[in-house]
Design a protein that fits this description.
single chain, 212 residues, mainly beta, 12-stranded antiparallel beta barrel, 1 helix, globular
């Protein structure tokens, strides 16, 4: 009975940490969508193994559309008795579409996270190297976007039940120097996760992730 309970806990732990990670378990297919008033992103991933995934990003930001195939790598993982930490690297190359014109675009992203069943923290830093110099709303040809998230679960639920988290997000980019603070509610059950929230500036946000 003790071994069975431990196995269930490990399965629950592993499935929960598959969400929103650039690399998941072997042969896992992921769909991730992040949406706010100024930015929409769709990310499709397929994990070759637990350390490497191929992916494709569609990003709409400041009227520019980005289509970028990418490779995701798990660089380091620390497994503790009641927590886990990860470092991921993503590299990609594709194109940017702006007013029917096409330009080269390249992507690099670093993701760091630490979480237990009760607490969660993450940092994401994304750099776009762009050939497009025509978009006056996105004038920097080296465009950066950063995001910090801190979260807490008000109660612990089983894998089969609905899990709820409170998330506070801080984000900004090269063009908009202001740091935006967003409060989100995260819900997940089994292999489906969704988040709803709003920033202090009034921007609504909706995200969802599915792993198959």
């Amino acid at each position: 009975m003790h071994r069975f309970s431990l196995l269930l806990f490990l399965l629950f732990w592993f499935e929960c940490r598959a969400f929103a990670h650039p690399v998941s378990y072997k042969d896992a297919f992921g769909i991730m969508s992040y949406n706010s008033s100024n930015r929409n992103e769709l990310l499709l991933t397929y994990s070759i193994n637990h350390k490497f995934a191929v992916a494709h990003t569609y990003l709409l930001e400041y009227k520019s559309e980005f289509f970028i195939p990418r490779a995701n790598f798990l660089l380091k993982r620390w497994n503790q008795i009641s927590s886990q930490a990860n470092v991921y690297l993503s590299l990609g190359s594709g194109f940017e579409k702006f007013k029917k014109q096409v330009f080269g675009a390249h992507l690099a992203e670093i993701v760091l996270d630490w979480e237990s069943r009760k607490y969660y923290s993450s940092f994401e830093g994304l750099i776009l190297q762009r050939d497009n110099g025509l978009n006056i709303d996105m004038p920097h040809q080296v465009f950066g976007h950063g995001k910090i998230r801190l979260g807490m679960a008000p109660f612990l639920a089983d894998y089969e039940d609905l899990n709820i988290w409170f998330i506070t997000q801080f984000d900004g980019n090269t063009h908009d120097k202001a740091v935006h603070t967003t409060q989100l509610l995260r819900f997940y059950r089994k292999n489906v996760l969704w988040e709803i929230g709003a920033s202090f500036q009034g921007s609504f946000q909706f995200n969802f992730m599915i792993h198959l």
